[in-house]
Amino acid sequence: MTVTALLFASYAEALGSDRVELTLSGSPTVRDVVERLRAMPGGASLPASPLVAVNLTYAGADQRVESGDEVAIIPPVAGG
Amino acid sequence: MSIRTAIVRRAIDVAALLAEVQDTANGATIAFVGQVRDLNDGRAVTGIEYSAYGEMAERELAAIASECAARFGITQLVIEHRLGRLDLGDTSIAIVLAHPHRASAYDASRFAIEEVKRRLPVWKREGYVDGTSEWVNAGGNVQARPVQEQQR
Questions:
Q1: What ipTM goes with this model?
Q2: In B43, B90, B97, B117, which residue has its Cα 20 to 30 A from B65's Cα atom?
């Protein structure tokens, strides 16, 4: 199965991309997506437990991801 | 009842927003206006580039507005947040609301801006007079809670 990871701001700069397609096996969770990203070049600067949104809604690390999901890794927000 | 939110890439017209929330049922109107200031953590700032997870930011801003309206009995509320390159003094966010009484108006205004700070997926890259720029709060705490902990 394939999910699309979205990266923003400092995280996108660290990995050199704002969008990564990941192929995962088994019954992957948000945590698995984060671990895959952290193993990529530049990924070490992502925290082990970043804020994540799945399909536009904030999600916990144990949440399952499904094929086609959009998994956004959200840096500390700074709006306003 | 008039509740409206928008993520925009143009100047925010606060006077127009004040006019938008006018209703003779309300005795108190509050406008919170966030602007780019010239100093942050002791460094002279030249401007800020705002970016967002656009689709989610629109959803979260709408959710904040409806939660604010429900919690404080607000019937007139408009929030606009601007993205893109902003110069010193430019308005980055305006939260304009009205209520029959001042206490609830103040409380609702404070609630809305604090929720924006806590959970709106927006980032800012600050430019400094020495020509450098940095992401603001990049090493900061993760503020929003996972959805299962939120009161939705």
A1: 0.93
A2: B90
